Amino acid sequence: MSSHPVHPESTTRAPLDASRLKVEKNPKAGTPPPPEQLVFGQTFTDHMLVVPWTAEGGWGEPKIQAYSPLSLQPSSIIFHYAPSLFEGLKAYKNPKGEVRLFRPDMNAARMNRSAERISLPTFDGDELVKLLKKLVEIDANWVPEKEGYSLYLRPTLIGTQPSLGVGETKEALLFVIMSPVGPYYSSVVKPVALEANPERVRAWPGGTGDAKLGANYGPCILPQREAAKKGYQQNLWLFGDEHYLTEVGTMNLFVVLKNDDGSYEVVTPPLNGMILPGVTRDSVLGLLRAHESGQSPLSNLPKIHVSEREIKMQELQDAAAQGKLVEVFGAGTAAVISPVDRIGYQGKDIHVPVTSSGFGPVAEVMLNTLSAIQWGKVEHPWSVPVSK
Ligand code: COI
User: Fold this and answer.
1) Which of 25, 78, 241, 266 is most buried, judging by how many CB atoms fall within 10 Å of its CB?
2) So what's the pLDDT on residue 287?
3) Could you tell me the distance, in angstroms and rounded to a whole number, from the CA of residue 274 to the centre of ligand 1?
4) Do 84 and 78 contact (CB within 8 A), yes or no?
5) Is 332 near ligand 1, meaning CB less than 6 Å away?
6) CATH number of the domain that 44 lies in?
7) Across 149-175, average pLDDT
8) d(CA 354, CA 367)
9) Model confidence at 4: pLDDT above 70
10) Which residues contact 290 (CB under 8 A, 6 or more apart)?
11) SS3 of residue 190 by DSSP
12) Which parts of the sequence are annotated with region: Disordered (predicted)?
C-alpha cells in the first residue's frame, strides 16, 4: 500500500502505473556540453517523461520519449487560469559512477499536496519515483560527473482541457524534463543581499504559499527586479503589520541567534500555510535536531536549539544591534544553502555576519553535510540509487 494520498475519485480510474511504461528512444541523442558551460535550466537532456490523464480514464500510459515541444490548444485551461504545479529535485553521480536521487519520495508527496490544492489529479507517489528513476537511468550520461554538478529534474503537472470554463480540468498532463546544472556558486561563495519590503507579499493565510504552484512564482519576478534596481539580489518576504519574516527569494529562511551562554538558536518560520515545506528545509531541520539531541552530533557546531517559530523584523534588528545575530541563510534545492550578508529594511541596511568563507558557521556545516549525503560520500537513507 502506498503512503502517498490518492484522490478518492481516482480509485475507479486507472492509477498511475510505472509497469505500463513505454520507452521510445530519441534517435537524435545529443552530447552534453562541458559542465563549465552550463547555465541553470537552459540545457535539456535527450528524453522526457509524459503521462496524460483524463477524468474518464484516469492515468494513461507513461511514456519516455525524445525531449520535444508540447502541442496544446490555445483554449487549454493552463493558458488561462494557471492550473500548474512543479517540483525540483536533483540526481548526483559519485566518483564510482553511481547515480542517486535526493529524497524523491518527499517531492512526490508534495506534488500530490500541490495537486489537491489546485484541483489537478493525484497519483501514487511511489509509481512516480519508479518512473523518475527510469528516466534518469536512460539519460544517465547527462548526469555531470564533476563534483558540485548535478542533474536537475523538473516534474510538472498542468491542466490541459480545451475550455474557458473556470472549473476542475477534465484533462491533464504530467511531464518530467531534466537539465544538467552547475554549482550555484562558482569558486567563491557570494552571500546575497536581501530587500525586505513589506509592500510586497508572497503568500497569505488561506492562500497557496505552501503549495509549489507555478502561479506563486510569476508574481515574485517584479519585486525581485525592483530589489535588483536598488542593489539587492533577492527579496526577504515579510507578512503582516508586525513584519513577520517568511521566506527568502524562492527559498526557505533560517536565522541563527546567539544565546547568552554561547549556544545558538536556529529559527525557521513554522509551516503555517504560508511557508513552502521545502525538502532542503526539512533536511536541515533533521540534521540540526539530530545534533541537538546528541543522536548524531556535527563537528564545528556549538550547542543548538532548533525552533520552528515566528520571527519579526524587530527581533532581527534587535539581535543585530546587540551582536546576537549569528547568520541568516536560505535553503532550497537549486542553491542548497545560500548565505545572506545584508538586509535592506525601512531605508537602512542590517549587516549580517559572514566568515571569510562567505558563510556563517551553521550554513557552512549544513552545506558540507548535505553535499556529502547527496554525493553518496556517506551512506544515508536520503540518497537513493536510481538502479535499485
Ligand atoms: C529552489 O530553490 O529549489 C527553487 O524552487 C528554485 C526554482 C524555482 C528554480
Assistant:
1) 266
2) 98
3) 16
4) yes
5) yes
6) 3.30.470.10
7) 97
8) 14
9) no
10) 296, 297
11) coil
12) 1-35
d(CA 154, CA 141): 18
Three-state DSSP at 307 gives strand
Q: How far apart are CA 365 and CA 300, in angstroms?
A: 7
Task: Report the CATH number that the domain containing residue 223 is assigned in CATH.
Answer: 3.20.10.10
Q: Which of 140, 235, 158, 147 is nearest to 183 (CA)?
A: 147
Helix (H) or strand (E) holding 112: helix 104-117
Residue 100 structural domain = 8-183
C-alpha cell at 243: 513584519
Domain count for the chain: 2
pLDDT at 188: 61
- C-alpha to C-alpha distances, 82 to 41, 70, 156, 220, nearest whole angstrom: 21, 16, 12, 15
Average model confidence (pLDDT) across the chain: 94
- 253: CA distance to ligand 1 center in Å? 13
Residue 30 is predicted with a pLDDT of 85
Query: In angstroms, rounded to a whole number, what is the distance separating the alpha carbons of residues 4 and 119?
Result: 17
Question: Nearest 5 degrees, angle CA 95-CA 97-CA 101?
Answer: 100
Whole-number Å distance between alpha carbons of 192 and 214: 24
CA–centroid distance, residue 70 to ligand 1 (Å): 23
Q: Are residues 47 and 98 in the same domain?
A: yes
Over 50: is that where the pLDDT of 60 sits?
yes
> Model-level pTM?
0.95
Q: Say what the pLDDT of residue 103 is.
A: 98
The span from the CA of 15 to the CA of 123, in Å, is: 7
Q: Which residues contact 298 (CB under 8 A, 6 or more apart)?
A: 287, 291, 365, 369
Cell numbers found for residue 72: 496544446
Would the CB of 216 count as within 6 Å of ligand 1? Answer: no
Q: Are 334 and 279 in contact (CB under 8 A)?
A: no
* Angle (nearest 5°) at CA 99 between 96 and 105: 145
pLDDT computed for residue 190 by the predictor: 83
Which atom of ligand 1 is closest in space to residue 41's alpha carbon? 9
Q: Considering 183, 215, 236, which residue would you say is the last residue of a domain?
A: 183
Ligand 1 atom at minimal distance to the Cα of residue 276? 5
Which of 153, 183, 213 is the C-terminal boundary of a domain? 183
Q: Is 251 in the pocket of ligand 1 (CB under 6 A)?
A: yes
